[in-house]
């Protein structure tokens, strides 16, 4: 009873403090809101919408079930999740946060995952996509696409580490969910599962497409709200001096590992919002490049409270527990920072500083490369794509309301 009352008082005081802060710093709050809104409608919405729509249709048509049966012999021994986890993992890496959570929740609602399997799966399928790591962080903040190799390797190796560790979480079900366990992939069984799933869904293509569009846009509207909210919170915490206060405690930890204390405030900011934290880290002149990359690797892996709140909101629609996901983010953060540290000398120093001729190719992600231009194109045409998509969503929603 006391804990419940304490929680009520804490939440009430927090919201009251935020309301007072908004009144005290109106211009800063507006600037932070605009920054979050621009990030959402220029980058996040147009880049995630196609992945979300296609994912919904792949699930409806049974393609995910098909992939799941084929990947069962791989995903089950490694991560103790069904084969459909391979699809979620791939889509999570390709599209970025919080696609892995959305797909995991969707598969849990369809009964293709048990509760424990879903909690294992969501813990390692939410990660940053390569375009953000190379385009936004490496090129945009550090003006060095080659750093993307270290960041990507550390990020995804840390991701795999989390998956391997989380396989020990929970108890094994008596029988794997979905198809029975197989010793080797069976194309015939996979095709049979694909056909059964499509027949059981039984929605016309138009209805399936409409549901995919509305569901995807509803999720993205929620994501946009969280991005704006945490952009404002981060700014208010900075002006209230709370960020500096928290940074004092982090400075003591950084000093133990000989990390410049000037990185403490960017680190705290990154715990709330990864883009701002990464940008601030890249601007710290007192730190070496390696120290900056270690901090950014932790920030990207931890994914920030903004992304975690998005995931929590998605998981709240199911019985999936959020705590394993949060615990996995801490593991991922330390693992990614560790991999960035141990890979710096053999990868970056050897291939890029002393022997540039042997460099690992990253030309695809340079500023004027195809993917670099693609990233700039998303930013340029993002608002138009967002407006058109929202118009389609409004039209579909209005028609459905008229039918009711």
Automatic annotation (TrEMBL):
Highest taxon listed in the record's lineage: Bacteria
Entry-linked NCBIfam families: spore_ylbJ
Membrane-spanning residues: 48-71, 78-101, 121-142, 149-169, 217-238, 250-272, 292-314, 326-344, 378-398
Stated name of the protein: Sporulation protein
Domain named Nucleoside transporter/FeoB GTPase Gate: residues: 44-140, 220-316
InterPro entries xref list: Gate_dom, Spore_IM_YlbJ
UniProt keyword rRNA-binding, yes or no: no
A Pfam family that the UniProt record links to this protein: Gate
Keywords, ordered alphabetically: Membrane, Transmembrane, Transmembrane helix
């Amino acid at each position: 009873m006391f804990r419940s009352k304490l929680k009520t008082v804490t939440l009430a005081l927090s919201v009251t403090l935020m309301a007072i802060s908004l009144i005290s710093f109106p211009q800063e709050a507006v600037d932070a809101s605009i920054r979050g809104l621009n990030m959402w409608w220029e980058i996040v919405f147009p880049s995630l919408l196609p992945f979300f729509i296609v994912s919904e249709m792949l699930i409806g048509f049974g393609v995910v079930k098909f992939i799941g049966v084929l990947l069962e012999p791989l995903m089950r021994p490694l991560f103790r999740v069904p084969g459909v986890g391979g699809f979620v993992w791939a889509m999570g890496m390709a599209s970025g946060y919080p696609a892995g959570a959305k797909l995991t929740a969707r598969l849990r609602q369809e009964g293709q995952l048990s509760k424990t399997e879903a909690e294992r799966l969501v813990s390692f399928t939410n990660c940053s996509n390569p375009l953000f790591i190379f385009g936004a962080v490496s090129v945009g903040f550090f003006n060095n696409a080659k750093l993307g190799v270290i960041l990507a390797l550390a990020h995804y190796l840390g991701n795999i580490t989390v998956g391997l560790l989380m396989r020990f979480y929970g108890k094994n079900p008596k029988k794997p969910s979905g198809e029975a366990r197989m010793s080797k992939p069976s194309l015939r069984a996979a095709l049979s599962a694909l056909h059964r799933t499509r027949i059981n869904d039984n929605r016309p293509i138009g209805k399936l497409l409409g549901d995919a569009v509305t569901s995807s846009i509803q999720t993205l509207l929620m994501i946009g709200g969280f991005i704006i909210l945490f952009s404002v919170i981060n700014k208010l915490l900075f002006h209230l001096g709370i960020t500096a206060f928290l940074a004092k405690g982090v400075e003591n930890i950084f000093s133990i590992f000989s990390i410049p204390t000037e990185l403490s405030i960017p680190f705290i900011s990154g715990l709330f919002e990864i883009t701002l934290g990464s940008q601030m880290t890249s601007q710290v002149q007192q730190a070496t490049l390696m120290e900056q990359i270690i901090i950014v690797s932790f920030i990207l892996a931890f994914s920030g409270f903004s992304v975690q709140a998005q995931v929590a909101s998605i998981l709240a629609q199911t019985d999936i527990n959020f705590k394993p996901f949060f615990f996995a983010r801490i593991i991922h953060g330390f693992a990614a920072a560790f991999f960035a540290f141990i890979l710096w000398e053999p990868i970056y120093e050897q291939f890029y500083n002393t022997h540039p001729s042997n460099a690992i190719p990253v030309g695809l992600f340079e500023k004027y490369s195809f993917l670099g231009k693609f990233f700039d194109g998303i930013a340029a045409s993002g608002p138009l794509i967002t407006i058109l998509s929202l118009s389609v969503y409004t039209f579909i929603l209005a028609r459905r309301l008229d039918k009711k």
